[in-house]
Amino acid sequence: MNRRNFIKNTGCLAIGFSISGSFIDAPSPMMQELPESIKRHPNINAWLEVLANGQVRIFTGKLELGQGISTAISQVAAEELDLTMENVEIVLADTLRTPDEGYTVGSGSIEQSAMAVRFAAAAARHKLLELAAQQLNVSVDQLTMKEGKISTITGDRSITFNQLLNGKQITDKIQAPVTLKPKENYKLVGKAIPRNDINRMVRGEQFYIQDLRFPGMVYASIVRPPAYEAKLLHLDEKALQKNIPGILKTVVNGSFIGVIAKEEYQAIKAQRWLQKHSKWSAGTQLPAGTDLVTYLKTLPVQTKRDNEKGSMPTDTSSFIKAQYFKPYHMHASIGPSCAVGIYENGRLHVWSHSQGIFPLRESLAKLLQLKIEQIDVTGVPGSGCYGHNGADDAAADVALLAMAYPGKHIRLQWTREEEHAWEPYGSAMIMEVAAVLDSSGKINSWQYDLWSDTHSTRPGGNANNLLAAQYYSTPLKEKQGFSGGGFRNSEPYYSFPNYQVNGHMFKGPLRTSALRSLGAYANVFAIESFMDELAEKAGKDPFTFRLMHLTDERAKAVIRKVQELIADVKQAANTGIGIAFSRYKNSAAYCAVAAQVQVQPKEGTIKVQKMWAAIDAGEVINIDGLINQTEGGMIQSASWTIMEQVRFDAQHISSRDWVSYPIMRFSQIPEVEVAVLNQPNEKAMGAGEAAQGPAAAAIANAVYKVGGKRIRHLPLHKR
Amino acid sequence: METTIQLYVNGKMHTVQVHPSTPLLYVLRNQLALNGPKYGCGLQQCGACMVLLNGKAEPSCMLPVSAVNNKTIITLEGLAQKDTLHPVQEAFVQEQAAQCGYCMNGMVISAVALLNENPKPSDAEIRAGLERSLCRCGTQSRIIKAVKRAANIKG
């Protein structure tokens, strides 16, 4: 996308859609079920258009987050229409142009959007062939399609998509059954098609929300309270004007303070000045200085039995027991959140890197008391988010400022400190597991209890969860959260005769929401650490012990594959290998991970040297994209596991930069290797979160192998 | 007070009106409309804002613009020769060494500076050369491969 197209694609008007939806299941060839997205947006032209230059433009309601989804979706479309990748362009989530596909989350974009586009493109193919058959006066089976042209088999006559459509679009409804291209004829799907966006990034072309520039654009900053729920007592706007040049407007509403300035650096200076020269109430005190596990256990909980099987023995005194803990983690995007907004002629337009621009629009309408129809939100890629970070909050901030200062594009860039101290973290979790083995060394009964805060406070059409809503003049108090996320992967995927899973949901001290894989990371860390502990008690090796508790052949296959990958690895002194497995959500991608660590005997310093993964995500769309996600997932999870925890003092978060919240740097990065088990005839499944949990447990299991020390409370390396 | 400052960026002299304490990053992005150097932390901790300053990779987020008016500044945009990418840029494309790509500026700039000084770095030297730059997507293993590819190092 060149500069002109960047502006065009992020700033121009087209058709709009407004119904929300999500896709339930992939179709089987026998009983074809169309994706839910297609049921909501049934017309072919909701998903694709033929352009005047003969190219095909695809519309997706999902956003590029660095997961390579724009390439994967383009591949699927190009495949069905026999186009080259160069002949396909893609428009990402935009309330003005694309279908509403809810949130770009849960590794669901391949399963949802790519499959919807596959059906739309296949339906378009049939329509184009029908039209060509009429025009050329031959039967459809006498025609071939290639690069935007339909020709007779004899090659004597041909007609382009454009000539067929004559400026119109294909508005037919997509109806089951749609005949899809036979997989054995695939030329693009499954291949490592390079991402075109990397070409643009490496040249420094306009790509990110941070790169949006509009004529006359002004710059904003927000002054954050010193603590959660602190109230503004005093602010001297006049003194600000006197001390900092370039201030265009100070917006104060309740405890929400924004400053708009001519230059970006002036907005930053104003923010710093006001932080020093404003008075606030104390706000909510945080439980600093107490052991977090002990503290969380004192909180009132809502208990829910999530899952059970068989009957648990009443006497559990003979059970082997262990308690695991995962602290609060940060999304820690490298680029802090950013948004641009303008309010003019009664309409608000916001540019955001939110994972869900349609629900964001609904939330903004409620926050600002505007009609949904008065708001447009355009999705523009930001820095990788790995879940619900500050993106939606920044959009709400800029919307409030735009309403107070109409007629100009306002750009708001959060600071590093704001992103670190105010983003919604991945919840701290406690996992207690107890189990008993039978005489053959198999697990007979399994008791699992987890403690967690919510794993989703996404705005979801609700204004209350937006950060600004909590500080605005009439604070919208009742926040809503989704507690189900804590249960993700809490049910064992192994076959145990008896088990029970209980969740104890608390409201913890820190703001929390969705972080990559939600509860699965902590649950798999606990389950897979405990599996190794039990394997040792049973006198079995970790591979055999897992395999003897599994019935799913695809699960066994990834474990055996990882076993094969490490078969010839020689161990140096103070090193060891651990393994772990999970099937993400117990219904998506299968992933087994091995980790080799080195532990310094004196200091106890842990270095992850190498990690291997075997992954089965069903039908592979882009093999390099799948490998990239899995490599990155392992490295990110290694960083969480070894060294990360959000720290706080009595007043607020004290992890406010990369020194107080360190993440892995190059000297600590392990080598990574990924083996993909492609299943062309199985449902395509997202894979972006599959490695998070097993990577953590594999490392903890390796550390135990080296030094005999079982670390159950994360991070593994205490500072 | 704003003053007139001359900056030599990507082979051209530019004249800007800014407050002399403004960090170079904001001048490059907002006055010169460059996208390469990114805001990441404003604290010289993450490397997203790296530029080549007289050939050395330096973070631009805290560097007052008044301190660089006699230096040669090259940004990501200034590395390619017309349509031909710099070998480091080409290697990042070949290795598909990105997910979100937000850190890529700092990685490419640091790698260019490293290879200028040390054309055949060891694995440890590559890691040391990139240590100041953070990536959250976990693409570091690909970035190391890209630097090796650019340096024609096998494996």
UniProtKB/TrEMBL annotation, chain A:
It comes from the Bacteria. Pfam families: MoCoBD_1, MoCoBD_2. Residues 203-284 form the Aldehyde oxidase/xanthine dehydrogenase a/b hammerhead domain. Signal peptide: none annotated. GO terms for molecular function: oxidoreductase activity. PANTHER family: ALDEHYDE DEHYDROGENASE, BLL3820 PROTEIN. This is Xanthine dehydrogenase family protein molybdopterin-binding subunit. It comes from Niastella caeni. The lineage of its organism: Bacteria, Pseudomonadati, Bacteroidota, Chitinophagia, Chitinophagales.
From TrEMBL, chain B:
The keyword Transcription regulation does not apply. It comes from the Bacteria. Gene3D superfamilies: 3.10.20.30, [2Fe-2S]-binding domain. Keywords: 2Fe-2S, Iron, Iron-sulfur, Metal-binding. InterPro entries: 2Fe-2S-bd, 2Fe-2S-bd_dom_sf, 2Fe-2S_ferredoxin-like_sf, 2Fe-2S_ferredoxin-type, Beta-grasp_dom_sf, Diverse_Oxidoreductases. Signal peptide: none annotated. Residues 3-79 form the 2Fe-2S ferredoxin-type domain. PROSITE patterns: 2FE2S_FER_2. Pfam families: Fer2, Fer2_2. The keyword Nucleotidyltransferase does not apply. This is (2Fe-2S)-binding protein. It comes from Niastella caeni.
